[in-house]
Amino acid sequence: MKILVINCGSSSLKFQLIDSDSEQVICKGLCERIGIDGSRIVYTPEGKDKITIETPMPDHNKAIELVIEALTNKENGVVSLDEIGAVGHRIVHGGEKFTKSVVINDEVIKAIEDVSDLAPLHNPANLIGIKACQKAMPGVPMVAVFDTAFHQTMPENAYLYGLHYSYYEKYGIRRYGFHGTSHSYVSKRAAEILGKDIKDLKLIVCHLGNGASISAVKNGECVDTSMGLTPLEGLIMGTRTGDIDPSVVEFIMKKENLSVAEVNNVLNKKSGVFGLSNELSSDFRDLEDGYVAGNAGAKRAVDAFSYRVVKYIGAYTAAMGGVDAICFTAGVGENSGFVRKIICDGLGFIGASVNDEANTVRGKEQIISSADSKVTLMVVPTNEELAIARDTYALCK
Ligand code: ADP
Question: Using CA atoms, how far apart are residues 137 and 127, in angstroms rounded to an integer?
Answer without folding.
Answer: 15
